[in-house]
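Regression report. Comparing outputs from two consecutive submissions.

Submission 1:
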Amino acid sequence: MSSSAGTAGFTKVCKGLAVVLVCGHIAIQICPSSLTYVALIPARTIPFGWNLLTASYVEQSIHGVLISTIGLLFIGKHLEPIWGSREIFIFIFLVNFLTSVCTFIMAISLYYVTMDENYLYMPISGFGGALLGILVGVKQIVPDQEFSPIKIKAKWLPSIVLFLSIVWSFFIEDPETCLPILIFGAYIGWIYLRYFQRKQETKIKGDPSDEFAFSTFFPGFLRPLIDPIASLFHQMMCGRSEGSIEARGYTVGSVALSGSDSIEASRRRERGARALEERLAAKEKKLEPKRDATEKV
């Protein structure tokens, strides 16, 4: 987003979670054996079931904790003022927990397919899933805003980060310890925002708008292939017939249907854009006295 937005103050929940990430990294550096109890180690998840909750808040490498804390502070602050502290906390908690559950199931499945015990004992942890989920949230709220200095619209950020992560996974050792977290985090974040997030002012759940369809994460030429598959999974997951989808304004194929939910999705994006503009204006107002003092000097 704009450079002015980038200088705005960090938000309460994001600052608190950043402290947790830094303290967690320091703790495992001081006491490496503690990683056994807080990271997701599939063979030890039973009886150490709490690692499904703790694994997402422990970064094992210095570059991991730097990326997670900086990304959380600079990206999360664009969502928390719009969603509220309670909602962003719930969102991060759910994305992290469900990402750990999916990663656990994937690791157990890979073990039974390959009989490679490495999948059972590799320590998996990291905040990347929630970070991708937050990027999906930014894509939903302010899709056309640009991040400076890279000048990339918010709606493309989750897809670009996932693509670069997949490419990078071919050049690192044990990509299964980090790549699934990113993929599951982005997908679970989208699932929650698409179908389950409840808007307090309208009591409507989810965002059925065409601009937030699953196919929008892919290049345009792939969307005609992805839309029918996504529509099938939508009906399997939600148990809605095509008629009920039309009644609520869902997208069928590549055609956007009218409905109250689609209007509400547009209004929500407008509110998000207005909230950002208000924050920028407030920041500029605070900077004016400093500029005047500098000019007088």
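Submission 2:
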Amino acid sequence: MTNTIQPIINAARTGDVDALQNLITADTNLNATDEKGYTPLIIACYSNRLEAARYLMQAGADPNAADFGGNTALMGACFKGYPEIATLLIENGADLNRQHGNGGTALMFAAMFGRNTMIELLLKHGADITLLDNRGMSVFDLAAQQGNEDGIAILENYQPA
């Protein structure tokens, strides 16, 4: 971790856009990570700091950067259930079908944690319902495992455009 990334991570966590503006310079690596592999954007998104996330992406943060487990900002937003953050990430090129270290996707996170609005959002933008995780589990399997009947219904009724 560089000396400058921790204050940026802290500002991202609290959503302090003014601090971000003061801390980020032309040579700041916005994809640098803390000791857990989190980038400022991942932290801002996981903390539901929409304006901080927007500023970080405008400043050059990679929406597809991943932590040490392969989790992206979009996966975190889907786990937590933040549709505005997810929309921002998708509009800025977040990979809907990226798989983390165990093969999970943002759609799988949404299905497992009952974030059905997120399922609808991801499907609307073209998330792949056929991907399997490393155990061979599909998004349907994961939703069923968690008892997410409404999520299963959304997935079953999905009609690709």
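Expected: both submissions complete independently.
Actual: both completed, but the second showed a warning that disappeared on reload.
Relevant detail on submission 2: The chain is about 50% helix and 0% strand.
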